[in-house]
Amino acid sequence: MKWTQLPLGPLQTNAYVIENEEKQALVIDPGSEGEALVKWLNEQKLNVLAVLLTHAHFDHIGAVDDVREAFNCPVYIHKNEQDWLADPSKNGSSRFFGAETISARPAETIIENEQTLEIGPFKLQSLETPGHSPGSVSYYLLEHSIVFSGDALFAQSIGRTDLPGGNHDLLLKSIHQKLLELPEDTIVACGHGPTTTIGNEMDSNPFLSGF
């Protein structure tokens, strides 16, 4: 398996593409630039099996329908944000000056609790990590020692909690009880910025001390 980080859109939101040797793929958080993203996926000769969303803020969902329509694949989202895709007032695209209003079709698959997701040859553990938003989910691939954390945990930072549904204490609880319990060598593929590791953030993230 290999994975690729693709920063997209004005906020440089990281989309991630996970693929195997047979060119089957998953796309996590296709946030923007749908036409360019679909073109890149086709150039790589990938067969996208599903789109996984860590949460439904506008900068993470802007290209959802483009990818879904191009590859006829389902979208996965947590139940607490299942109605955000179609609602610009909830996904935030109506709140930010200069942001394009975004509305996407409902997701085909609703994540209702923590579970193992088996999508084709891929096996991921969904971890409920609310706080940045009420339906934030992280996707953990145990066999490959990587977690896709969305906007919960960043290198040397954590997600903002001043948006509707945000909760600072809950975010810290999610990080400590779900993410920091993973092995220290686990790669953290963040929603924005560079990757890091669980060990690095345990040792030096200034937002996590004293919790």
Automatic annotation (TrEMBL):
The UniProt GO MF terms for this protein read:
hydrolase activity; metal ion binding
Q: Into which EC class is this enzyme placed?
A: hydrolase
Gene3D superfamilies given in the database record: Ribonuclease Z/Hydroxyacylglutathione hydrolase-like
Q: Which InterPro entries match?
A: MBL_Glyoxalase_II, Metallo-B-lactamas, RibonucZ/Hydroxyglut_hydro
Q: Which cofactor does it need?
A: Zn(2+)
Q: What is its EC number?
A: 3.-.-.-
The protein's UniProt keywords, in alphabetical order, are: Hydrolase, Metal-binding, Zinc
Q: Which residues form the Metallo-beta-lactamase domain?
A: 12-192
Q: In which domain of life is the source organism classified?
A: Bacteria
- The name of this protein is Putative metallo-hydrolase
